[in-house]
């Protein structure tokens, strides 16, 4: 694999990592409303979800998502349902927190990891991303390079997202004063993203 191709992929991967999206929103929300430890667990979970999709892409399984409209729609609907569930649950918890201080349940690292994992596993766009991006940079007849490219992409995420968590930690004290408003706002975004995922065209 040429150095130019490797640098080109790294640049493209970096753009996908730093571009705000669902994963960024989830990590920042957790960092602001729960704390750094839970946010890092979300990062680990979402990274594992990406790793599963990347592995499936390397062995050709995610080709089913492009070949089968039904398979794509099933994963998309599951992902949409999960996002709406997360948003609705957060809205309900914020409603209780508004009437009773400290009534909000604080998710542990295990629960946060599970949220990060399921959010990426149930997003078919992650699988399609690896299926469409990796072949453009993998040298013909050298499938081992696929694992290296995946490692670069995931590694960039594991550097960038903790930086966001550290920045959010500095703002957390101020934003916690507006916790209920912030919680409801981000929860509503989850519901909106779930509805968008459910009804958008492939």
Task: Name its key features.
9 helices; single chain; 202 residues; globular; mainly alpha
Please give the number of β-strands: 0
Q: What is the count of distinct domains?
A: 1
Low-confidence stretches: 98-103
Portion of residues within helices: over 70%
Beta percentage is: under 5%
Q: What best-fitting shape do the alpha-carbon axes yield?
A: globular
Mean pLDDT: 78
Largest sheet: none
Number of helices: 9
**Alpha-beta classification:** mainly alpha
SSE string, helices as H and strands as E: HHHHHHHHH
Mind telling me the C-alpha Rg? Answer: 18 Å
Q: What's the N-to-C terminus distance?
A: 33 Å
Task: Walk me through this protein's architecture.
With 202 residues, the chain is mainly alpha-helical. Helices cover 83% and strands 0% of the residues. Helix 3 packs across helix 7. The radius of gyration is 18 Å and the shape is globular. The chain starts with a helix and ends with a helix.
How would you summarize what this structure contains?
By secondary structure, this protein is mostly helical. 83% of the residues lie in helices and 0% in strands.
Give the secondary structure arrangement, pairings included.
Elements: H1 3-18, H2 22-33, H3 36-58, H4 63-67, H5 69-99, H6 109-121, H7 124-137, H8 144-175, H9 179-199
Helix pairs in contact: 1-8, 2-3, 2-6, 2-8, 2-9, 3-6, 3-7, 3-8, 5-9
